[in-house]
Design goal:
heterodimer, A: 143 residues, alpha+beta, Heat Shock Protein 90, five-stranded antiparallel β-sheet, 5 strands, B: Transcription Regulator spoIIAA, 48% helix
């Protein structure tokens, strides 16, 4: 299993680097079929939305707070853990999105759930950890 | 950097200049679009340069759609990269906003509507 861990701080401009970290780690270990690339795109989207929620809701846009992104990949799954020290985020308290154009926000949690196979929120040594798991397409455990 | 704005007849075409339209720059995009939206209600967003969009980026685009719709106009989107289209389909944007292959097709779609 390959592991890639990197520390960031809580500024939105770091989202691009987080996305690049996850994308590069996955592309090194998985193939480049369209299905695999789409699976990686979806995982990257889920990482982006999760980290964006951490910065905006858990840290309330306070700069300089720690966020760690750890990627673990094997032949069948990619798991990303996003750890932070901000307020716990309860995804079940977010209202469902509206798809009729009447609201321009509220898609983040929905996109996370749609993009990965597993998502959970836990505590680890005083930190909140968001775990996102994506199965590799074409494997026994994937689609 | 300002977005590239072109007028074709009564249609305004804006080339979105952000390669990644996300939470870090979606407010900048909204600010960029404010003066454009004051002058037009037939808008094409050309996303040829956009490689990634997140929920906040989608929100900014939906805000453009809402704005022109309330003025009796419409928004059409063109030149959408595969990962961007994937996000649009997840939030079902393609059901409320026409997505076309090219800029010409998007402009012509307004003209067809007038016939």
């Amino acid at each position: 299993m390959a592991a890639h861990r990197r520390a960031y701080t809580s500024e939105l401009h770091h989202l691009a680097a987080m996305r690049a970290q996850v994308r590069q780690a996955c592309c090194r270990e998985w193939g480049n079929s369209l299905e695999e690339l789409e699976a990686i795109d979806l995982l990257v989207l889920a990482v982006n939305e999760s980290a964006s929620n951490v910065i905006r809701h858990s840290y309330h846009n306070e700069a300089g707070r720690p966020i760690e992104v750890a990627v673990e990949i094997d032949d069948e799954t990619a798991t990303v853990k996003i750890a932070h020290e901000g307020a716990e985020f309860d995804p079940d308290r977010t209202p469902p999105p509206s798809f009729d154009g009447s609201r321009t926000g509220g898609f983040g949690v929905y996109l996370i759930r749609q993009s990965v196979d597993e998502v959970d929120y836990a505590h680890d040594g005083g930190r909140c950890v968001i775990r996102l798991l994506k199965r590799r397409p074409g494997t026994s455990r994937g689609e | 950097m300002e977005p590239e704005v072109e007028t074709v007849g009564d249609v305004t075409v804006v080339t979105v200049h952000y390669e990644q339209l996300d939470a870090s720059n979606s407010e900048d995009f909204r600010r960029d679009m404010a003066p454009v939206l004051e002058k037009t209600h037939k808008l094409v967003l050309d996303l040829a340069k956009v490689e990634f969009v997140d929920s906040r980026g989608c929100g900014a685009i939906l805000s453009c759609l809402k704005n022109v719709s309330e003025a009796g106009g419409d928004l059409k989107i063109c030149n959408v990269a595969r990962p961007v289209r994937m996000v649009f389909e997840l939030i079902r944007l393609h059901r409320i906003c026409e997505i076309l292959g090219t800029r010409d097709e998007a402009v012509k779609a307004f003209q067809k509507r007038q016939v």
